[in-house]
Amino acid sequence: MAPHAAPRAGLELLLQGQILSQIEESQRVLGALAGWIFDRYALGKPGGEVARRLGVLMVSGLIVGEGLFNVALALLIVVSGNGTPLAIVGEAFAATGTVLAGLAFILVPLGLYFWTWRRAKAVVA
User: Fold this and answer.
1) Are 124 and 47 in contact (CB under 8 A)?
2) Domain regions of the chain by residue span
3) pTM score, two decimals?
4) How confident is the model at residue 75, as a pLDDT?
5) Buried b vs exposed e over 73-107: b needs ≥16 C-beta within 10 Å?
């Protein structure tokens, strides 16, 4: 083992942590921007206040659901001793999975905002 292996490994882990935290932070910024755009769109429209409140409830549910899922996943990882207990496809699917995850990251919230807007119109009508 080379004498510089341990510090290099530590540096790589540190950089991975910084990159992951930047990715997480960019998701928060994009979510805040999407919420702001939705609020501005709803402002002054019939059912706009209801849509804003339903949007807050929807996003709160997503945040809580993600937290609960991550706790359950961590428990599953510890109990199974497997770092990827829910993996159903191999490494060859990584590139396709990344593209599909990116599309889902955009389309699912967009669909939920449209659904929220339709529900708000139904409440007001």
Assistant:
1) yes
2) 5-124
3) 0.66
4) 93
5) eeeeeeeeeeeeeeeeeeeeeeeeeeeeeeeeeee
